[in-house]
């Protein structure tokens, strides 16, 4: 697809809960826009945006996929994101580079847990959003109930801009409420909804003067583009019903991608993939400036220059050299060796903040047979961690162990498949274990005087205080640069987060404030790395004095079961240390919402499905870390020598320094 310079552009992310029909909708959008000649299918593995072998086999999207097309003179970059909670990190990265979003809800299943979480992230980032109510022809489809649910759980400002014709199997399509053919009563409902939300419109409405529908639609467009109101349209993606209207609504209600091609380059790498022949593919969203083939670009994050060899548009398995990437557009840039996800190219001025959704809650050890080359396995996982930094691949040299972090069991199945198909490697995974955290029990001090064996001299005193839940680490120094040189203060500040990676029980320490209150160096005896050695000793001394409390990950869950199973589910939740709201009856189904510790509920979805004979749904998302009950014990083997054993720790580090 040849893009025209200076053309109007919109960057749209398609988001949904798993199985709401996201990839099917994307396929029909590409077909209706003339981008593809035949509609692919998720079930038969022919969807353009499911380009990975494992996606075609499993019928689920694992990676965010990019496709570009033109509609009504506007170039649209469309990103189809994974719906499964195990691939939330891909969703998170896509959110950052989208200007607008389509959230797909199923008219049969309604608002599900992940739809809610994505909605909250979209609102946090202020991304204009359109709602597509899919599967209108399904038995049990109830658009009125789903709209009421969406207004309760998502936003009261979701406004249908169409009138649905027929219900369930008799659904035939929808009429635009701004069109002449629209039912006057349904249109009045929309006008009244707008008037309720805008004083100027309300005055016009009650004044009795004839209404200028074009002006009212312009007001709705402005409100939608500002992320204030959220138009809703209907359809059946699998039959192609409502797709052209969805495309029209996207070009009507979505803001155009801004950006000045003449300004200095400002962009972000939001995804990394690999091409067998071309090497590393950096998916770049450019906010300002222009990048051309053979340009030298500054990687601001890594402080290195990179030479662009080629710029391509990539769709499924097809790529096309476009020669340039300009402000507001998205494309794949080749040639930037060592580039990582999240790297800012050029200057950071125009790059928006990110929404943190994905938190890996499980750690898993990777095993392989003696005949398998361990270097190949480690290299493969390091490459995969480039593509998904949250994998956080860790090779423990002394223990000869490889550990990764994951979101859930489906992700492990996908990793297993990718390792075999891409690298020809067969591995197995140990039992996933929950990632706990620690936080200080009370306020106190940590101190070290690292004066032996010479040459060395570093004195540090930290104040350690508990912080609010979810606050992470806050660090500050009260020490004057005349007492401790800035270079040593910087080294100390750099080492504090590292020192907190393993607390008293071996878990990362979080939700605390660390203040450097005293620091001294010696004009002759201080070695440049003395403060790197001293910082962990002072931090661990402090943690040992104040003690730490264990924190465990908590899930927000929504369970839907046949009414006769409701009592057992509530009993199960109590047994798992869960809490829940009073259950809600919907027909013959019971909906139970609550909070559950991940540690007690790892296998619960399987047993729930088993005793309800598959007639249940269990959806969950991460709700934060909370303090464990006193009887919960969870310790992780420490890597390396504990800085509390100062003599052994100094010997081990000094040996490394000499080495």
UniProtKB/TrEMBL annotation:
It holds the Pfam family EF-G_D2. One of its GO terms (molecular function) is GTP binding. The keyword Nucleotide-binding applies. Keywords: Antibiotic resistance, GTP-binding, Nucleotide-binding, Protein biosynthesis. Signal peptide: none annotated. Residues 7-262 form the Tr-type G domain. The keyword Protein biosynthesis applies. InterPro entries: EF-G-like_DII (IPR053905), EFG_II (IPR041095), EFG_III/V (IPR035647), EFG_V-like (IPR000640), G_TR_CS (IPR031157), P-loop_NTPase (IPR027417), Ribosomal_Su5_D2-typ_SF (IPR020568), Ribsml_uS5_D2-typ_fold_subgr (IPR014721). GO terms for biological process: response to antibiotic; ribosome disassembly; translation. Abolishes the inhibitory effect of tetracyclin on protein synthesis by a non-covalent modification of the ribosomes. This is GTP-binding protein. It comes from Paenibacillus riograndensis.
């Amino acid at each position: 697809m040849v893009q025209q310079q200076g053309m109007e552009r919109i960057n749209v992310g398609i988001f949904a809960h798993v199985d709401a029909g996201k990839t099917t909708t994307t396929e029909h959008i590409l077909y209706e826009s003339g981008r593809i000649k035949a509609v692919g299918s998720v079930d038969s593995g022919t969807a353009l945006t499911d380009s990975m072998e494992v996606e075609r086999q499993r019928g689920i999207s694992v990676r965010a996929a990019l496709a570009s097309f033109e509609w009504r003179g506007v170039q649209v970059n469309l990103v189809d994101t994974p719906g499964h909670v195990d691939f939330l990190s891909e969703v998170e990265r896509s959110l950052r580079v989208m200007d607008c979003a389509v959230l797909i809800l199923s008219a049969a299943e309604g608002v599900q847990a992940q739809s809610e979480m994505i909605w909250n992230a979209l609102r946090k980032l202020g991304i204009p959003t359109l709602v597509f109510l899919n599967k209108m022809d399904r038995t049990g489809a109830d658009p009125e109930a789903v709209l009421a649910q969406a207004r309760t759980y998502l936003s009261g400002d979701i406004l249908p801009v169409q009138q649905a014709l027929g219900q369930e199997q008799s659904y035939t399509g929808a009429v635009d409420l701004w069109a002449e053919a629209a039912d006057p009563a349904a249109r009045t409902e929309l006008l009244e909804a707008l008037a309720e939300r805008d004083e100027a419109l309300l005055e016009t409405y009650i004044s009795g003067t004839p209404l200028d529908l074009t002006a009212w639609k312009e007001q709705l467009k402005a409100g939608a583009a500002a992320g204030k109101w959220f138009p809703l349209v209907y359809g059946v993606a699998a039959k192609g019903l409502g797709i052209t209207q969805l495309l029209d609504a996207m070009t009507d209600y979505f803001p155009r991608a801004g950006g000045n091609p003449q300004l200095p380059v400002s962009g972000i790498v939001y995804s990394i993939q690999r091409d067998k022949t071309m090497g590393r593919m950096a998916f770049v969203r450019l906010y300002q400036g222009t990048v051309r083939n053979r340009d030298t670009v500054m990687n601001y994050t890594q402080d290195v220059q990179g030479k662009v060899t080629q710029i391509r548009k990539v769709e499924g398995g097809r790529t096309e050299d476009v020669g340039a990437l300009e402000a507001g557009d998205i494309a794949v840039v080749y040639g930037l060796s060592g580039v990582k996800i999240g790297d800012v190219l050029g200057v950071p001025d125009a790059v928006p903040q990110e929404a943190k959704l994905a938190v890996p809650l499980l750690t898993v050890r990777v095993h392989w047979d003696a005949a398998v080359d361990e270097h190949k396995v480690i290299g493969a996982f390091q490459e995969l961690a480039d593509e998904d930094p949250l994998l956080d691949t860790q090779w423990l040299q002394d223990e000869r162990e490889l550990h990764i972090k994951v979101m859930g069991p489906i992700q492990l199945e996908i990793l297993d498949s990718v390792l075999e198909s891409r690298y020809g490697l067969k591995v197995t995974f140990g039992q996933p274990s929950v990632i706990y955290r620690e936080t200080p029990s009370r306020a106190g001090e940590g101190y070290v005087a690292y004066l032996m064996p010479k040459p060395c001299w570093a004195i540090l005193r930290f104040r350690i205080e508990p912080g609010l839940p979810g606050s992470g680490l806050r660090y500050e120094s009260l020490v004057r640069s005349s007492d401790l040189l800035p270079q040593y203060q910087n080294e100390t500040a750099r080492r504090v987060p590292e020192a907190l990676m393993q607390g008293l029980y071996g878990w990362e320490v979080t939700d605390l404030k660390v203040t450097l209150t005293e620091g001294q160096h010696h004009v002759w005896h201080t070695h440049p790395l003395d403060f790197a050695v001293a910082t962990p000793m002072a931090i661990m001394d402090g943690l040992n004095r104040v003690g730490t409390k264990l924190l465990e990950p908590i899930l927000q869950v929504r369970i839907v079961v046949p009414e006769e199973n409701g009592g057992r589910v509530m009993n199960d939740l109590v047994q798992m240390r869960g809490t829940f709201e009073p259950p809600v009856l919907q027909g013959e189904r019971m909906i139970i919402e609550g909070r559950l510790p991940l540690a007690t509920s790892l296998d619960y979805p399987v047993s729930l499905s088993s005793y309800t004979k598959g007639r249940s749904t269990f959806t969950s998302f991460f709700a934060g870390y909370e303090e464990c009950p006193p009887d919960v014990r969870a310790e992780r083997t420490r890597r390396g020598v504990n800085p509390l054993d100062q003599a052994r720790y100094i010997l081990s580090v000094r040996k490394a320094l000499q080495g």
